[in-house]
């Protein structure tokens, strides 16, 4: 392809060069002929107005001038010094109806040039009748020779050859890293994504392409490793309840008289329920990973929290302090699942109480879910959001956890443009959800009555502080160490 392009360029260059040489010859010839024509015209005018035979002066740099009779035997009536006593320059006459003739004479060594470009004018002179006045200029040897065209063609060929060599070498040096990248890419398989593209030191587009490809391969490798880990963890999580379910059924069948059928069925139902939760969480993660954007509507986050709390039957008491008018834009089902996962996690690990706070902070809506359990060590605050992560594996499985609740909650928060993280707390765990607050210009007005599943908090509940509150004392209790989750009062009980 490169050679074809160079060949095409060379052909075009050759044609242009030859055309330029021919055009240059034509322009030079035209200029010389114009000089001869002016000299012949001036000589004819002077001779017509009384000039007699003798030496004609040079005109406009033209030294070869003759006045020749047009009789049956043409003779020279007057001539310039170089043509004294010489035969007529030409016997050519203008065609009928014209008075000018252009001709070219070659092969006479007397003119000190291979050829002469001659221009003749027919004019009438008193006493001599009709005469021809000729002006001639020697033609440079190069104009009448193919040497210029051949020289230009040869130079074009040399230029094309040199350009082809330089282009071939430059393109080869440029594309050599691309060939190496192609070879490396062909060796990458779905089972081995560890290979990388060689990055040249040229710091050009090829180097940037190689760096971009390597970054893409890094992301693909991380994604593939995460997928493999996820499949392995999911298989392990599904195998555990299936194994337990099969074992119980096999024992009941092997010794039916020694087993309690109702108890066995209850245990099998628990295992099936756990399988159901795992599959449901896996399906939710698959939908989130697919990037499907569900329909979003303006929501009152406080009312949504109160609705979910009213529908739950928690293991421990839950108190909530909800500021009115905390509105966000989101999908109701997804945000409800996020809140349920946070409340379930807190209820699972709390020792005696769970606290929920809904408030605003700047341009964000904030939901805090706190418990008085063992808390989350600082080193594990990010790990708890990884899939199938349990800090207390035995306790989590015994409590029915799948290890995916916080993962799903964070993915939903990120999908809504928010954040979910573990915040500092003097006691227990404190999970913070931050979502973009719906701006006043975007608020459509009062929320429909169907969104109010639970009446709002009593008016005597104090408003939320503008920022994270410091530990304060609840009514009838000692000072709490839960941090921002503790309201000024006991909050609403659920």
TrEMBL record:
This is histidine kinase. InterPro entries: HAMP_dom (IPR003660), HATPase_C_sf (IPR036890), HATPase_dom (IPR003594), His_kinase_dom (IPR005467), HisK_dim/P_dom (IPR003661), HisK_dim/P_sf (IPR036097), Sig_transdc_His_kin-like_C (IPR004358), TCS_sensor_his_kinase (IPR050428). Residues 455-469 have a biased composition (Pro residues). Keywords: Kinase, Membrane, Phosphoprotein, Transferase, Transmembrane, Transmembrane helix, Two-component regulatory system. Residues 439-494 are annotated as: Disordered. SUPFAM superfamilies: ATPase domain of HSP90 chaperone/DNA topoisomerase II/histidine kinase, HAMP domain-like, Homodimeric domain of signal transducing histidine kinase. It is found in: Cell membrane. Residues 172-225 form the HAMP domain. The keyword Membrane applies. Coiled coil: none annotated. Its main location: membrane. The chain crosses the membrane at residues 149-171. The lineage of its organism: Bacteria, Bacillati, Actinomycetota, Actinomycetes, Streptosporangiales. It comes from the Bacteria. Its EC number is 2.7.13.3. It catalyses: ATP + protein L-histidine = ADP + protein N-phospho-L-histidine. Residues 233-439 form the Histidine kinase domain. The keyword Nuclease does not apply.
